[in-house]
Amino acid sequence: MPDSTRSAAALLVDCLGVQGCDRIFTVPGESFLAVLDALPDRPEIEVVTCRQEGGASFMACADGAMNAAGSGRPGIALVTRGPGATNASIGVHVAHQDSQPMILFVGDVARSMQGREGFQEVDFPAFFAPICKWAARIDDPLRIPEYIARAYATAISGRPGPVVLALPEDMLVEQVPVTLQPRPFAVRPAQAVCPDAMAALFDLIADAASPVAIIGGAGWNAKARACFQQFAEAIGLPVATAFRRQDAIAPSSPVYAGNLGYGPNPQLVERVRQADLIIAVGARLGEATTDGYTIPTLEHPGQRLVHVHPDPEELGRVYRTDLALCCAVDEFAECAALWEDAAIIPFDAGAAAHRAWLDWSTPLPSEAAMDLAACVAAMRETLPADTIICNGAGNFAGWWHRYWRYDAYPGQLAPTCGAMGYGLPAAVAAALRFPERTVVAVAGDGDFLMNGQELATAAQYGANLIVVVIDNGAYGTIRMHQEREYPGRVSATALANPDFAMLGAAYGAWSARAETTADFIAALAAAKARSGIRLIHALTDLERIAASGATITGLRARAKS
C-alpha cells in the first residue's frame, strides 16, 4: 500500500512547482535540510547555490525583475536563519524599493525554541515587516498551500514587492496527507481603466501647453512599453524615464527625452520644472527621480499632476495628485494608445526633447587616458542592441546611464535604492534567465568587492557574462560628497585594491587590464569573441568623478568659494 503521507517540505516544493517556480537561489543551511532533500524530486526547479546570502537575494530580486517583464512570477531565494536572513535582507530591501516581485524563504528555529533566543533566532515577521509586503511564519504544515498561494498573489499584485516566509525546521519534517494539494497559480487580477478618468486625462492634455511624462516602475512590462510609446508618439508627448528605468521606452523613440535621477540632462530637468502637466505612469516619484522631491515639488503649484499606479496606497501618499488612476499600467497604456480625441493637436515638444537627449548622450572628444564615455560608445558599437546592462551603485554607473542606449526590454538591471554589490549577482541571474543574450556587469571597485565572490557561482553554472570593473581607488560617490562638504579632507574613502584581472583569472575568467581607452576597446573586442566569464579591469582617474562632468578639483574649488 502506498504511503499516505509525505513531508511538509515535499509539499512546500510541490507548491512551488505548481506556481511555476523554475529556479531557486540559495546558500544551504541546516535549518531547511528537508527542503533540500525534497528539491531533487522536482527536477524542473533548478537550484543555484550561491556564495553569500546577499548575492542570493540580489539574484532573486533581479530574477523577479526580469520575470515581471513576462511571466510576472517572483524571484525565489532560500536561506537559513540568523546570519543567513540578515545577509539576505539587502535583497529584500532592494525588491521593496524597486517594486519587484520576490519571495524569500528563511529556515527558522524549531517551534519549541521560539521566544528563547535560540541558536541564531530572529523574530522574522517583526524583522522584515518594514521592508516587505508581507512577512509571516508557517507554523502549521497543513496551511502550506494557503501560505504559498498568498505569497505569490501578494508579491505580484498592486505594487509588486517582496514577501518573506519563515519555515520552522521541525515543521518541515512533519508528515502531511498526500491528498493535501497545492493551490493553483495566483493570476494577477485585471485592473481596468476608468473611462471617465481617461476622458479627464485627455481633457487635461488638450488644455496643456507643455506636458511631459515620467514612466517606468510598478507593473511595467513589454505591453506597457509598446503601448505607451505608441500613445506618446501619436501626440508628441516628451517621455522621461524614472531613475534606473531607462528600458521603459525604446531610446530610438522620437519622443524619448532621457532619464531622471542622479546626473540628468539639465535641459530635461528644466523641461520637467516648466511643464504645466506631468503624467507619471508606474513611477512612485521617489527621491532620486525627483531630485529630493523638488522636480516637481510636492505641491507643484502651476502644474497639474496625473499619477497612474496599480496600488491605491501609492496615490496621494507623497505628492498632491490632481488626477489619480488606480489601474494596471499596461492596461492604462493600451487604453491610451487606442483612445481617440480630435481635440488634441500633436505637440512639437517630443521631438525637441529627443534631440536634446541625443546631444546629451553623444560623447564629446576627451584627452583623458581612460575616457569612459568613449568606452561606452565602443560598447554600443560592439555589443548587440539587446545586451542587458547590470550595475550596482556608484558614480561609475552614471557613464552608462548617460551614454548607453537601453534598446531591449528588459535591458537594465540596476537598484533604484542605490545598493552596492548588486550588479554582478544580477548579471548571473540574467545570464541564467537569458542565456542567448549578452549580459554585462558594470561595477566600481568598491561595488565589485561587495559581491565579487559570486564569480564562483557564475563559473559553477556556466554563465556567459562580461564584467567591467571600474577602478579609481576610492569609494568615488562618497569622495565626491566629501569634497563638496569638506574639501581636501579625505577620510575613509581611499581604497587599496587587488589586481582585478588576476582575481578574475583565479575564478576561471578570461581577463584583461585596460589603462587607456584603446586598451579597453581592444579588450572588449577580445571579450566579445569568447564565451564564459570575461573580466576587464579598467583603471580610471579619480579626478574625472562623474559623467555629468564634475571633477574633484572643481568640487573642491566650488566648496571653498
Strands, helices and their partners?
Layout: E1 5-7, H1 8-18, E2 23-26, H2 33-38, E3 46-49, H3 53-68, E4 75-79, H4 83-98, E5 102-108, H5 124-128, E6 134-137, H6 144-156, E7 162-168, H7 169-172, E8 175-177, H8 195-207, E9 211-215, H9 222-235, E10 239-241, E11 256-259, H10 266-274, E12 277-281, E13 304-309, E14 323-326, H11 329-338, H12 349-360, H13 372-382, E15 388-391, H14 397-403, E16 412-413, H15 423-433, E17 439-444, H16 445-448, H17 455-460, E18 465-471, H18 476-485, H19 500-506, E19 510-514, H20 517-528, E20 533-539, H21 552-560
Parallel strand pairs: 2-3, 2-4, 4-5, 5-7, 6-7, 9-10, 9-12, 10-11, 12-13, 13-14, 15-16, 15-17, 17-18, 18-20, 19-20
Antiparallel strand pairs: 1-8
Helix pairs in contact: 1-6, 3-4, 3-15, 9-11, 13-20, 18-21
Describe this structure in words.
- The protein folds into three domains: 5-177, Rossmann fold (3-Layer(aba) Sandwich); 195-358, Rossmann fold (3-Layer(aba) Sandwich); 365-560, Thiamin diphosphate (ThDP)-binding fold, Pyr/PP domains (Rossmann fold), CATH 3.40.50.
- With 561 residues, it is of the alpha/beta class.
- The longest helix has 16 residues, at 53-68.
- The mean pLDDT is 95.
- α3 crosses α15 and α13 (372-382) runs parallel beside α20.
- β6 (134-137), α6 (144-156) and β7 (162-168) form a beta-alpha-beta unit.
- The strands form four sheets. A six-stranded parallel sheet has the order 3-2-4-5-7-6, with helices on both faces. A six-stranded parallel sheet has the order 11-10-9-12-13-14, sandwiched between helices. A six-stranded parallel sheet has the order 16-15-17-18-20-19, sandwiched between helices.
